[in-house]
Amino acid sequence: MTPAARVQAAIELLDAVIEAARSDGAPADRLIADYFRARRYAGSKDRRAVRELVYRAIRVSGPVPDSGRAALLALARDDEAIAGLFDGSAHGPAPIREGEPVARGGLAPDWLAALLAASGVDGKDAAALLDRAPLDLRVNTLKAARETVQLPVPAHVTDAPNGLRVEPGAPVESWDAFRDGLVEVQDTGSQFACLAVAAQPGETVIDLCAGAGGKTLALAAMMDNRGVLIASDSDRNRLSRLGPRAERAGAGMIETRLIDPGKELAMLAEFAGTADAVLVDAPCSGTGTWRRNPEARWRLTPERLARFVPVQERLLDIGAQLVRPGGRLVFVTCSLLDAEGADQAESFLARHPGWVPDSLDLPLGSPRGKGWRLAPFADGTDGFFIARLTRPW
Q1: Is the pTM of this model over 0.90?
Q2: Which member of 194, 209, 284, 334 is catalytic?
Q3: Closest by alpha carbon to 116, among 321, 304, 336, 291?
Q4: Do the bridges between strand 254-258 and strand 228-233 make them parallel or antiparallel, or are there none, so unpaired?
Q5: Closest CA to 69 of 45, 53, 51
Q6: Does residue 388 contact residue 357 with C-beta atoms inside 8 Å?
């Protein structure tokens, strides 16, 4: 592919990403993979260059652009080399026309940027949400120790007790250490969220919204494969991925439960009032993960955010009924919006007199309301809100 053809390919892909964002379609990664699967002639350098252009254009565009061309023109506005590739060549984009639409910059759509600012995320904190994320690993202590794991690339120790950081894009899944279950891909912030559960060997712990089980696997390691660990979720496809991952990790204690939405408590009735800890890693806007999924900010609407909040409330109330007296309810969202964090913790405590917020003093992050916040700029992690709430005796 010529440099101009790469720009045209990026424009076509951005058109698809924009349409998917408007219609709740496939994520950008999948669209890019599908695009090149149908274009085998594109070499690895071409694929890498086009992918880089697509994500640069996504990050530089605040609100949803009018078109992929408008998004690329936003890059061209500040990069003469890209502007020169709008040359009208056979496989390149048409020359730039005076006055044609150019994507507007900024963090996100105005309403969302305002909510983030009201939640204390502005300036450098806001800009960091669009940086490229690092690639973090968690050493699986069921099989290895951080100081003994051998990786084929340089790795740096993180602030998480079993964390390592490697260069973004490293082919982790091809490594022996991954195939043998010695390491899992897990952001440092997510590792800290698991630490807040304070799971101990022999306890009964429920991961209420387990998804594909990344946090469940970390809890199994903390529990040294001893006790009861339930991974429940209403998404069959995501939950089905946990089995092979658990086998690879040697986490044989995990029991999965596919839950019908609205019937969570009935389907976990035998654990009512008995769990030592319940983790509610609730569905949320994902504003803390924009470094990995920058187009997600184009998908979020006021209506969608408004639907997340009551779901989080309901899941917290379900989790509260599973916790034993003196037990722990840990609320986690990968969001930096107070509506999905500090406000939710306050609302829960108002609905449940006697419950007490625990003091979290993690190596990274800072207090936020009755909980704890991790953020990309200050902490180098994905954005998280974490609250640990103790049921009265």
Answers
A1: yes
A2: 334
A3: 336
A4: parallel
A5: 53
A6: yes
